[in-house]
Automatic annotation (TrEMBL):
Ranges annotated as biased composition (Polar residues): 979-990, 1119-1135
Protein name: Protein SZT2
Cross-referenced InterPro entries: SZT2 (IPR033228)
Residue numbers spanned by region Disordered: 959-994, 1116-1143
Domain of life: Eukaryota
């Protein structure tokens, strides 16, 4: 064959592989339009050496002919032309994928597979490992020699059925899976699974022990006649452990998977892969249909990898029956795959497309018709002898429902049906007529078919549409029966009603589709009146009404109003059927200054909320200028898309949703709009929003400092509204993080009246998905002495300013509860690759690697012996003190961090302590900062309060003792103990085999109770200092120096006594300092002196104390950008500091020979230097100022501070202590 014949030879293509553009996601409409535009046409493959050379929106990578000539090979395939026929299979590939791998760790997975002889949990891990290793391998596109290595972002979720389990279910999030890091990825998942395994086994053992105890009690003849209240409480404690049923577990897995996909890069193909034994079902058809609709609308392929035998073994199944029909139905209706087992892939140099590439990384219209070939493992299944019991043996009947014309193009109708989940079943071509048959697997064994008949080639004309249904005869009889009420089964009635609702929605969708696509047919629809061009909205919504009213009294454009009114009231939840949807997440900046009653209720008992009026006004003005006209003020805007001609060819709708400060811009384009146009409009709108700034305020003429512009909006990279914590009221119990979910299960330990768990399903999902830490700060030293609410509000105000200076923004506020939000950039760590860390990615995709951090600040509240009480309805002036003897004043802060692989990089100076931290350490990093702030302010407020109330009893050291450690059982009052200190009669009886490991596994480590933190050494470095020098009487010292009293010190000791008496006349009170306080005090003074005068000698040269305390760790954390110590290292039962006793000055200070001798002897035994003791005097100047006076405790401590052996070698004038 000559070269000329090779170039002109046409071959019928059997299989085509297409590559989609990576800059933006290619819609199903664009894929179907490409297919029909090239049907019965010839195409040619461009010659390329690398996959990166393909830059088009959809390009052909390779083709496999049906009849392969002898001369055809991969290196000569570009010389042929290929005809795309009706039998050609078209497969789409993507540059980027996002996959969520869900491991189903249900109790049924702990059984043994009688065919393979292995535990299903072990088989799940093996299947996961084989699948991940197969996906990470690059492969050669069939029909070519192009090595294709897509970017696959993976999140792994381990789903457990224990609803009150505090363990986070996300193992790894946002990992860029590649061949060189797959082993590290598998090792990390195995390491985290081991900790979950220990926790899961302890929970299972605890539930089994409690269930056995209940069964034993139920079998007793007498029953509960002679039981005490305590016995009944103990016996019913197993009801506090809720386990999700297999029906509910499947719904929960899908919800976790969809949430995880929302947080991965959006410009990619999405998929959920569930590793399970198949023992699950569905609770409600309504819930299942809603979730499946979301999967289909968002183009999420749900696939299954089943472990164990596919069929039931009656002798050993123990009631665990795999639901194969449900898995195959879900996979088929979402373009997924159901695999039986996960075969191992050889790691050699043969880079052929394996089974995981074929079923998890490809997309096609015929995919649901292509069942995966059975693996070798399926030869061992237990085969049915009677084929009539197989689901495929059910006889199905087809019935036509309706047939009607639609005045729209075939492309538009096809696009709408594809967005609803339909797939192309078959295509028939005649001379000038094309008929497309679509299919939707609606329920198991029931399929809804939709046919479109129109002209060929496809033109803008009327098409004929028909609806038919195929299913069992009993179902068709029910839906055609005139009297639905005659059905005895309530379930059958719901199925019939749901079916007719589907048929009605299809017809209504077609009607609105015709309305939308008639935009360019009538100039009255796109000719904007002059009054509307000037910025006047077309409609407005009167108060207390739900119907729109024309804003203008001029009714000269009725057609214009009639066209846009249905679009203005269109629900966002249904946009996906007709429109291409995009979103821009925005955080509006708050108005300045902040309200007065931000953390304190007003006289009416209400808190002020955060207002963003200035930013919202600027945003709406920008949207008015960016778009063509306003539909509804502060709500909907319309932009006209024009090409070369002045006539608009399409339009887009911009709608502002959600409540400020966190708002969402929804941009919807008419179906069929080119992807490049959509991408440009969204990018321009995002730039316009980012350029908005607050207006500059007028400054005095002599003010020369330049003030940086303050942006009005902060554009978010991730859909933070999906994981935003929205507290509406105070939680009932701060020690209970995971709420009761009425949909998922019942937990009798939690009362149903809890208002903060609404909606319960979303809250339950977030509490198990996000990484959480909560701190409960006790700010009351004794029951009879409490701070005023104004003082506590000042503490919360300073914490708020700290978060704002660190870059956080207000995201939600209600009832005095504030949620702050911040996105931090992540970078790779330990070989893992993240977006933006590889070659030539675009800037938008590089920004996808971020981690959402949320910080929640609750208002001050009181807790007594009967639980928590909300203080929202109480308004207290500064002089009103909480004198209730059983009330404790607390501050609650918490942090929620999105799981994200990598470490924080490129942190600015204001939050340099984030640098190099992973998402676990991010939550822990707030504790040292808040501890330093709260401790300093609480110490100041208590010193001021005690000085002004001399009759009050001071703080004692007993207030910081925590409750002894005991098993962490749900319903406890403390994180380490059951309800022992609040008057409850709950008694926990550990089951047999209880050990320390079990206790640690059941302990909730997300909530920490921080004791009363009165720490004077933390306050002193933040004070303004002045050093006063006083001369002592001249005294000679000889080596060796003894730091104990001697007769020569009598005169100077008398001088010290006169000094303290003089201080008593000034009305000062003394704070008793312990030895640890003095050690920290001396260390902080030295650090501050060195910072103020780095080249000056130390004020106290003899100090050689090297105490590794948490104060030092945090004091140097910000400046050195080092990681502070984790609060988990602090033993709650032994707090780092002890509160000091505030006493009048006339109480004698016990310092004498015996005390110095004891200290010297103790220091000599421990081989440690003596610690100089200090005396601290305090006086209240005003509500915002106090005076602290520090001086050595005695003359012997002065010698210990100032003298050493080196001083004796110096001139006499330099060794005299002053």
């Amino acid at each position: 064959m000559s070269s000329e014949n090779e170039e002109t030879m046409e071959l019928e293509a059997e299989h085509l592989f297409l590559l989609m553009k990576k800059d933006y996601r290619i819609s199903r409409n664009a894929r179907a339009e490409w297919y029909f535009n090239h049907l019965n046409h010839t195409v040619q493959i461009p010659k390329a050496d690398k996959v990166e050379n393909f830059k088009g929106e959809i390009e052909i990578v390779s083709a496999i002919p049906q009849e392969t000539p002898i001369e055809w090979d991969w290196d000569t395939s570009h010389l042929y032309q290929y005809v795309i026929s009706l039998s050609t299979v078209v497969t789409f590939l993507s540059h980027t994928y996002r996959l969520v791998l869900c491991l189903d760790l249900s109790p049924s997975a702990a059984t043994v597979d009688c065919v393979e002889g292995v535990t299903l949990l072990d088989e799940i891990l093996t299947s996961f490992k084989n699948c991940v290793q197969g996906l990470a391998r690059p492969f050669i596109v069939p029909g070519s020699q192009l090595l294709f290595c897509p970017k696959i972002y993976v999140t792994v979720i381990a789903h457990t059925p224990f609803l009150v389990s505090k363990g986070q279910q996300v193992l790894v999030a946002g990992w860029l899976l590649q061949q060189d890091n797959v082993n590290a990825f598998v090792d990390l998942v195995q390491f985290k699974l081991s900790s979950i395994e220990v926790r899961l086994s302890c929970w299972t053992n605890f539930v089994e022990e409690q269930r056995d105890a209940q069964l034993a009690d139920a079998e007793r003849i007498v029953g509960g006649l002679f039981e005490t209240v305590s016995d009944r409480t103990t016996n019913s404690s197993c009801s506090t452990i809720s386990i999700a049923t297999p029906e509910v577990s499947f719904i929960s897995i899908l919800r976790y998977g969809m949430l995880a996909l929302e947080l991965l890069p959006e410009k990619s193909s999405a998929g959920i892969i569930i590793f399970t034994d198949g023992v699950f079902g569905t609770t409600d058809a309504g819930w299942s249909e809603a979730l499946l609709s979301q999967l289909r609308h968002n183009t999420i392929a749900c696939s299954f990898v089943q472990v164990g035998s596919r069929t039931c073994h009656p002798a050993s199944s123990e009631g665990f029956l795999p639901n194969n029909d449900l898995m195959e139905f879900v996979a088929s209706t979402t373009f997924g795959t159901c695999l039986s087992g996960a075969p191992h892939v050889d790691g050699g140099y043969d880079y052929q497309m394996n089974v995981y590439h074929q079923y998890f990384l490809t997309w096609g219209f015929e995919k649901y018709l292509l069942r995966p070939t059975q693996t070798v493992k399926d030869t061992k299944i237990w085969n049915l002898s009677n084929r009539c019991f197989e689901s495929s043996a059910i006889h199905r009947v087809k019935k036509k429902v309706s047939d009607y014309p639609v005045n729209c193009s075939l492309h538009s109708v096809l696009s709408c049906r594809l967005r609803e989940g339909f797939t192309i079943k078959e295509v028939h071509l005649d001379d000038d007529v094309v008929e497309v048959h679509l299919a939707l697997p609606w329920r198991p064994s029931i399929q809804v078919e939709y046919s479109i008949r129109g002209q060929w080639p496809i033109t803008q004309g009327t098409v004929r549409c028909g609806i038919s249904v195929q299913g069992p005869y009993d179902f068709l009889h029910d839906v055609t029966c005139k009297k639905i009420q005659s059905l005895c089964s309530r379930y059958r009635q719901l199925v019939v009603q749901s079916y007719w609702a589907l048929v009605k929605n299809l017809s209504e969708t077609d009607q609105l589709l015709v309305h939308l696509h008639s935009f360019s047919s009538n100039p009255a629809f796109y000719t904007v009146p002059e009054a509307i061009k000037s910025g006047v909205p077309l409609f407005y919504l009167p108060p207390n009404e739900s119907s729109l009213v024309n804003a203008s009294s001029d009714l000269s454009y009725p057609h214009f109003d009639a066209f846009w009114k249905p679009i203005c009231v269109l629900d966002i939840g249904y946009w996906q059927r007709w429109l291409h949807c995009h979103r821009i997440g925005i955080l509006l900046q708050h108005d300045r200054p902040l309200p007065k009653h931000l953390h304190l209720p007003s006289t009416s008992g209400r808190y002020h909320s955060i207002q963003c009026r200035q930013a919202a006004t600027a945003l709406n003005a920008a949207l008015r200028d960016f778009t063509s006209f306003v539909l509804l003020e502060n709500h909907s805007y319309i932009g006209l898309v024009c090409t070369d001609s002045e006539k608009p060819v399409s339009f887009y709708l911009v709608r502002l949703t959600h409540k400020p400060p966190c708002v969402i811009l929804r941009i919807a384009f008419l179906g069929g709009t080119a992807g490049s146009i959509r991408q440009k409009v969204v990018a321009d709108l995002k730039n316009a929003v980012q350029s908005l700034n607050f207006p500059q305020r007028s400054l005095p003429q002599d003010f020369s400092k330049t003030i940086a512009a303050i942006p009005c909006c902060k554009v978010l990279q991730k859909p933070a509204e999906k994981i935003l914590l929205r507290y509406e009221k105070m939680p009932v119990d701060f020690f209970q993080v995971v709420p009761n979910d009425p949909f998922v299960g019942q937990n009798n330990n939690i009362q149903m009246k809890r208002p903060s768990a609404s909606p319960g399903t979303q809250w339950s999902t977030l509490s198990h998905y996000l990484h959480h830490r909560r701190w409960i700060w006790c700010i009351q030293g004794s029951p009879g002495l409490a701070l005023s609410l104004n003082s506590v509000a000042r503490i919360l105000s300073i914490i708020t300013k700290m978060r704002l200076q660190e870059g956080f923004s207000f995201a939600h506020s209600s009832s005095g509860i504030f949620t702050f939000l911040l996105e931090v950039d992540m970078e790779r760590q330990h070989g893992q690759l993240l977006p933006g860390s590889t070659d030539d990615e675009s800037q938008d995709q590089a920004q996808n690697c971020s981690c959402v951090v949320q910080y929640v600040l609750f208002p001050p509240h009181r807790t007594g012996s009967f639980g928590l009480k909300d203080s929202e309805d109480e308004a207290t002036e500064e002089s009103d003190i909480l004198d209730s003897s059983d009330a404790q004043l607390e501050i609650v802060t918490e942090c929620w961090v999105e799981p994200q692989a990598g470490i924080v990089g490129d942190s600015p100076d204001e939050r340099g302590f984030f640098q190099g931290l992973d998402y676990h350490a991010l939550a822990e990093s707030f504790h040292p900062m808040d501890l330093d702030c709260i401790s300093s302010l609480v110490t100041f407020e208590h010193l001021n309060l005690m000085c002004r109330q001399a009759d009050r009893v001071g703080v004692t050291c007993e207030q910081e003792k925590s409750v002894p450690s005991s098993p962490g059982i749900p319903g406890r009052r403390d994180v380490l103990s059951p309800l022992t200190g609040n008057g409850s009669s709950y008694n926990f009886t550990p089951p047999s085999g209880w050990d320390r490991r079990t206790e640690e596994a059941l302990k909730d480590d997300t909530v920490s109770c921080v004791p009363f933190c009165f720490q004077l050494p933390r306050l002193l470095p933040k004070c303004s200092r002045a050093k006063l020098l006083f001369s002592t009487f001249v005294q000679e010292f000889k080596a060796p120096i003894r730091y104990i009293p001697n007769p020569a010190d009598t005169v100077n000791e008398l001088l010290f006594d006169l000094l303290t008496r003089q201080l008593s006349q000034l009305g000062l009170r003394e704070v008793i300092l312990q030895e640890g306080d003095c050690r920290q005090l001396l260390e902080n003074l030295n650090l501050q002196a060195a910072a103020d005068c780095p080249h000056k000698e130390e004020d106290f040269p003899n100090n050689s104390v090297d105490a590794d305390t948490e104060v030092e760790s945090f004091a140097t954390a910000r400046e050195a950008n080092s990681t502070p110590r984790s609060p988990r290292d602090i033993n709650i039962s032994n707090p780092p500091s002890r509160p000091s006793l505030l006493t009048p000055l006339n109480i004698s200070y016990r310092s004498g020979i015996n005390s110095h001798d004891d200290r010297a002897e103790s220091a000599a035994n421990k081989n440690e230097p003596l610690t100089p003791m200090w005396r601290c005097f305090v006086k209240s100047v005003s509500s915002s100022h106090i005076l602290l006076v520090l001086l050595p405790a005695s003359f012997q401590d002065l010698k210990l501070l100032m003298l050493n052996e080196e001083h004796l070698q110096m001139p006499r004038s330099l060794i005299l202590p002053k």
